[in-house]
Amino acid sequence: MFSTIRNAWAIPDLRKKLLYTIGLLIVFRLGSYIPVPGFDYNLLGSWVGEGTLLSLLDTMSGGALNNATIFAMGIAPYINASIIMQLLTVAVPAFERMQREGEEGRKKLAQYQRYGTVLLAIVQAFGLYTLLSRPGFAGDVSLVANPGWQSMLIIVISLTAGTAFLMWLGEQITEKGIGNGISLIIFAGIVSQVPNMFMGTVHNLRDGNLSYPLLIGILAVGLAVIGLIVMMNEAERRIPVQYAKRVVGRKMYGGQSTHIPIKVASAGVIPIIFAMSIIMFPATIAAMFGVPIDGTGTGFWPMVLSWLTPQHWAYAVLVFLLIIFFTYFYTAIQFNPVEMSNNMKKNGGFIPGIRPGRPTAEYIQRVLGKITMAGAIFIAFIAVFPIVMGLGFIDGMGAFAIGGAGLLIVVGVALETVRQLESQMLMRHYKGFLE
């Protein structure tokens, strides 16, 4: 990875893209320290505790919620809008036709997604204001300095503008930089929490909640998990394809053998990001109706929301199931076995031992289902393992409560960015990274 980055840095065009990407990520981190007028960030920081829904939102935003800044909501509204748009693309024929129209259709869908992001950001910002301005949430005080419609308007506009700006930053990185901008913003937010995680570990060691042998064991397991993640991200099933010989004019085409590569973790980190965003969304709606989301309330809905925190076993089960669902969902969007079979048939290709047409599509679907299941279970297990361990099986795991999902995102985004760098160098006929 470091060799690839070094070789890419030597190419002026790629160096500009890297500097552009790094510059926008620095802008993101600087914006994470610009406070929203009206929030009492000193009180808010004490209420964004470990293992709560607010702590999840804080992690996804890179600590911006804890500091009560304009990026407090992070990029979650954009991700939720993306989920809704992809579901509509599958369910609504008009959106499906737009997707098939090519570049123009995709531009229209992207524009609708931006509108959806702003709308969801307004809803989430209003929900966050409603939650934090309610005196019962933080004892007898309000986390909003002067509750009222003026403060509400300022806070909602500031938070919505912050999310819209993050969406623009992500799109600019994707278009003019290196890698997927939204994923890199989440990557930068998680990495920025490493110092806090380190300090939490130090405090656990000092207080006797975590022993040194256990810490060494956790680090060793972490390194092994990183190796497994890299291996699973690179693993693929290759379906052999043979092309029949055909004569066109005086030239003969075909006759060669190739393969269809199907990655075990073809969905990448998207299922994890989607799952975390979906889990946080109910808290927004609950906050708008004054339902406590910190697990201290009484009644049916506060009890349900308490299940959506890393301190409850239902949270681990839900994360596991959501990751599996979104892995299958995203893979189904990426791969169309019927279309692949038809394209092979038109070009004289076939899978040895499988008849062209429908049998080929069914075979590809079976292979894809098995591979996707293996990748989904692996990703879901890595994501929930630290959560399960933090439920009381191992003392002192609180600092690592969301480490599995974060580790998967960090490693997955890093690998994907390196792959894009390599493809960019290959496009420029640069062979140094192959040596």
Helix and strand element order: HHHHHHHHHHHEEEEHHHHEHH
Overall shape: it is globular
Biggest sheet, open or closed, and with what strands and sense?
Answer: 3 strands, antiparallel
Q: What is the mean pLDDT?
A: 78
Low-confidence stretches: 393-402, 430-435
Strand proportion:
5-15%
Sheet with most strands: strand arrangement: 4-1-5
Give me the count of strands: 5
Q: Based on the structure, what is the oligomeric state of the protein chains?
A: single chain
Q: Mind telling me the C-alpha Rg? A: 24 Å
Structural class: mainly alpha
- Which bin fits the share of residues in helices? 55-70%
| Termini separation | 13 Å
Number of helices: 17
Notable features of this structure?
two-stranded antiparallel ribbon, 435 residues, mainly alpha, globular, three-stranded antiparallel beta sheet, disordered C terminus
